[in-house]
Amino acid sequence: MIEPANGHPSNLPRHPVRVVAQRTGLSSHVLRAWERRYGVVAPHRTEGGQRLYSEADIERLSLLRTLTAAGGAISQLAQLPHDQLIRLVPAEPLHAPDPAPADTAERWRVSALQAIETLDGGGLRRELGRAALALGVPPFLEEVVGPVLQEVGVRWREGRLGMAHEHLATVVVREVLGWVREAAGTGGAAPALVVATPANQMHEGGALMVAAAAAAEGWRVTYLGANLPGSEIADAVVRTGARAVALSVIHPDNDPAMGKQLEALRRALPAGIPLLVGGAAAAAYRAEVVAAHGQVVVQLAELRGALRMLASRG
Questions:
Q1: Which residues have C-beta within 8 Å of that of residue 238, sequence separation ≥ 6?
Q2: Taking residues 249-276, what's their average pLDDT?
Q3: CA distances from 65 to 75, 106, 292 (A)
Q4: pLDDT per residue over 123-160, tens digit each?
Q5: What letter would DSSP give residue 142?
Q6: 232 CB-contact burial (10 Å; exposed 0-12 / middle 13-18 / buried 19+)
Q7: How deeply is 314 buried, as exposed, middle or buried, from its count of CB atoms within 10 A (0-12, 13-18, 19+)?
Q8: Alpha carbon of 171 to those of 115, 129, 168, 249, 270: distances in Å?
């Protein structure tokens, strides 16, 4: 650590995000989220928009990571001055090993489903928010949100959960993933993506996950929600200057009108706009997607790969 003559950490902004992430153990997503939501530090921004952190910033972030790992709430710790944070650090180092990622995800899944069962919207919001910060965006989406929404769907179809449970889960997931998108902080120069579900597709959980995953990849997302006709989706593409469209199809998986919908959307889209179609029912509509010159991306990992390829084309 570089220190000035008075023994305090330097306030000179000099470290980019990747260095801060390496030295503090906090992911870049958590750093952005903590800054936006709690104002933990205020990094300097260069003319090009790059964030630069000082040694003092890194020390404060390291203290906050230590204290949150010990069970402290970041919402409360973020308000404390530096000296008080130092006094809160345990005298003995924490020797407990970090839980395995699968175990951590399982814990969040169980607590989220318990909150849904009891219609505890506040508890669900709290658990999902903590899971997003603890895991980072891709594992949070793939190992927590996706499985939770799938399980809610299964229990709803089996009659073990009611419509109120399904609606509560969707509302809270929409809120939390909206926060995840905002935390990504993509600017006007980022490539734009329109996300929606086509007409007759009422379940928007998959589309919400796509929007969050794309924002975490650096895309500027216009999220339109569920059950939109192709003409509206195409109009949004034109108005936002989007470079691609991502659709989620979950249920039903046997809509005879899907082929015509996708064909109409393709005709309405500007020439050359990629059409990505994912979700639980995407494979069932593979022939219709291919006929509309689209690409099926069943898994979020496939979506991220496709978006990275598109972004690299400039």
A1: 270
A2: 94
A3: 12, 22, 48
A4: 999 889 888 877 888 899 999 999 999 899 889 888 89
A5: I
A6: middle
A7: exposed
A8: 13, 14, 5, 18, 33
Architecture of domain 186-312: 3-Layer(aba) Sandwich (3.40)
Using alpha carbons, select from 309, 269, 138 the residue that is nearest to residue 215.
138
Biggest CA pair distance of the chain: 74
Domain boundaries, the chain: 17-88, 101-182, 186-312
CA torsion through residues 86, 91, 95, 99, sign? negative
What is the DSSP-derived secondary structure letter of residue 283? Answer: G
Three-state secondary-structure class, residue 286: helix
Report the pLDDT value the prediction gives residue 107, as an integer from 0 to 100: 87
The lowest-confidence range among 11-15, 120-124, 242-246 is: 11-15
> Tell me, what amino acid is at 45?
R
Topology of 17-88 in CATH?
Answer: Multidrug-efflux Transporter Regulator; Chain: A; Domain 2 (1.10.1660)
